[in-house]
Amino acid sequence: MKLCVSNQFIEHQVYELSEMIQKSTLYKFVGFELAENVQVSSSAQTKDGLALISKVILEDENGTIYYVAPNQNGLRFAEKEITYKEYKKLQKNETQNAILTFLGILAVFGVLMVSMAKLFI
Fold first, then answer.
1. Alpha-carbon dihedral angle through residues 5, 93, 91, 82, given to the nearest 10 degrees
2. Residue 53 forms beta bridges with which residues?
3. What whole-number distance in Å separates Cα of residue 105 and Cα of residue 14?
4. Quick one: CA dihedral 68, 71, 73, 74, positive or negative?
5. What is the pTM of this model?
6. CB 22 within 8 A of CB 53
7. pLDDT above 90 covers what percent of the chain?
8. Structural domain boundaries of the chain?
9. How far is CA 20 from CA 71, 95, 104, in A?
C-alpha cells in the first residue's frame, strides 16, 4: 500500500488561500508569483490546470510592494491583523520549527538505528 499526498491537492489548497488573500486584502492586489518565478496579474490558471503559486503580491497606499506566502500568515497580513514585520517573524519561526522538527526526527531515527544495531550485534 502506497501513501502519498497528491500535488494537485497541495496546489488546490495554495490556490484557495491565494484567492482568499486576493478577495479579503486591505491592500491593493498586484498579482501572483508562480513557482517558476513568473508573475501574473490576475489568475494562476494554466492550460494544464493550476500553477503552483509561491507568493501573492500586494501594494500599500505608499506604493510599497509586499510578497506574502499563500498561507494563514499571509492572509492575516493581507487583512492587516499583523504588520509585515510580524509576518516575517512568524514565517521565520515556522521555518525554524520545521527544521528543528526534521532534525529531531533524524536524531530519533539515529538513536533507534544505533540501539537496534547494538541489540543485534
1. 130
2. 34
3. 26
4. positive
5. 0.74
6. no
7. 64
8. 1-82, 83-121
9. 10, 23, 34
